[in-house]
Amino acid sequence: MALFWQVVTLLSVWLLYGFAASLFVKGSNKRDYLLLISSGLLGGLIGGRIGNILDVPENIWWLREVIKLGVAILSMHTLQNIFKWSGLRK
């Protein structure tokens, strides 16, 4: 049961990053959960890795979150264009 709640927590964080990114990407649909979760996942993973590589100090912890959000926005825009060009989405 503990594993279930860990998965639910991860999905909710990815949805939160994806929803925040959808506010900045023009033409994104907030009901497209595949796009929200995948962009949030990529933003969290790649942005977190970039934050670790940059070795962000703990007194400016919010910089790592800004990096994650920026990568989530970039990945949402890229995934939206890939979905549009491949014909998976309208």
Please, could you describe this protein's structure?
With 90 residues, the chain is mostly helical. It has one domain. Helices cover 76% and strands 0% of the residues. The protein contains 3 helices and no strands. Helix 1 (2-22) packs across helix 3 (62-86) and helix 2 packs across helix 3 (62-86). The termini are far apart.
Summarize the structure.
This protein has 90 residues and is mostly helical.
Oligomer designation: single chain
- Counting structural domains, the number is 1
Name the helicity range: over 70%
- Output the radius of gyration: 14 Å
Residues in β-strands, percent: under 5%
What's the total helix number?
3
Please render the helix and strand layout as text.
Elements: H1 2-22, H2 33-54, H3 62-86
Helix pairs in contact: 1-2, 1-3, 2-3
